[in-house]
Amino acid sequence: LILESDLRKGLERGEFYLEYQPKMSVEHGNILGMEALVRWNHPVRGPVSPGEFIPLAEESGLIVPLGEWVLYEAFRQNKEWQNKGYDPLCMSVNLSIRQFRQPRLAEQIGRMLEEIDLDPQYVELEITESMTVDKDAAFEQLKRFKQLGLHISIDDFGTGYSSLHYLKNMPIDRLKIDRSFVSEVMSGQSDAAIVSTITSMAHHLKLKVTAEGVENEEQLEFLRNQHCHEAQGFLFSRPVPAGQFERMFLKKL
Ligand code: G
Ligand code: G
Ligand code: NA
Ligand code: MN
């Protein structure tokens, strides 16, 4: 059993680190960006999955300092890669609901970007549909993010509290089709229909679209036929630590 005190100590002792998963062009196969994913290596328990510790961090409120660390580390790493002369890429960072509800989050992100001297066009924030339930507050927050120059995507699209209303009204840039639909795209008729419909809707709404959880060539071919821009998944790579990501995917200009 993971306890709140383990999480707190883990943060103090620097037991967290980030892994990165590439986001690839469906048409050309080149890298378009990456998603940062938090990892915890507990000194006694070993690796603890985020599926376990993120909910606990949410409940205890520790997600706020943990999420701040994640944002800072993702920005810092992205800037380090740019300073090394690699072709600059946009890095996605997941936000949790508790973080998203902090009215001062945008201001805080703005300060981090200034301190690190990272151009906001190289940052994408991933939110989920459930965060837009409180429409007015979500709209205000997203507007602040857009004013900073950040990109915004809706993660796990299609699994949450789905209202098409916010697609019309919220200032978002991208839909990320949940991997549960993508994984069944060759076997389930309804999943194929859902993926192609989301992709086509995104095009009509002038939103970008990413398919998550792409694991084989057949799924990629399906996405290519649907003119889906971007794909992410084990076909290209699992999330990997920074050094490995750099060797595998980053190219000098
Ligand atoms: O990477 P993995 O499949 O183990 O992630 C499991 C879950 O944890 C996913 O839902 C993912 O979005 C979430 N997650 C990973 N990193 C972060 C993070 O930095 N912040 C938040 N809020 N969630 C994350
Ligand atoms: O909820 P979110 O979409 O942020 O979760 C991202 C997580 O999904 C990553 O941490 C990663 O472990 C997992 N993931 C990424 N690609 C694949 C894939 O191709 N197949 C499966 N099963 N999981 C994946
Ligand atoms: Na995500
Ligand atoms: Mn996702």
Describe the structure.
The protein is of the alpha/beta class and 253 residues long. It has a single domain, classed as EAL domain (TIM Barrel, Alpha-Beta Barrel). Helix content is 45%, strand content 22%. The chain has helices at residues 4-12, 50-60, 63-83, 97-100, 105-116, 135-148, 165-169, 179-182, 189-204, 217-225, 242-249, and strands spanning 16-25, 31-42, 46-48, 90-94, 123-128, 151-157, 174-177, 208-211, 230-231, 240-241. The protein has an 8-stranded mixed barrel, surrounded by 5 helices. The chain is globular. The mean pLDDT is 95. The structure holds guanosine-5'-monophosphate (G) (2 copies), sodium ion and manganese (II) ion (MN). One guanosine-5'-monophosphate (G) binds next to strand 6. One guanosine-5'-monophosphate is lined by residues 37-38, 49-51, 54, 67, 70, 94-96, 239.
Summarize this entry quickly.
The protein is α/β, with parallel strands linked by helices and 253 residues long.
CATH topology: TIM Barrel
Quickly name the level 1 CATH class: Alpha Beta
Secondary-structure element order, as H and E? Answer: HEEEHHEHHEHEHEHHEHEEH
When the domains are counted, the total is 1
Bound molecules: guanosine-5'-monophosphate, sodium ion, manganese (II) ion
Backbone CA Rg: 18 Å
Indicate the proportion of strand residues: 15-25%
How far the N terminus sits from the C terminus, by CA atoms, comes to 47 Å
Q: Which spans of ≥5 residues are poorly predicted at pLDDT below 50?
A: none
Shape: globular
Structural class by sheet pairing and helices: alpha/beta
- State the CATH superfamily name: EAL domain
Organism: Saccharibacillus sacchari
Protein name: EAL domain-containing protein
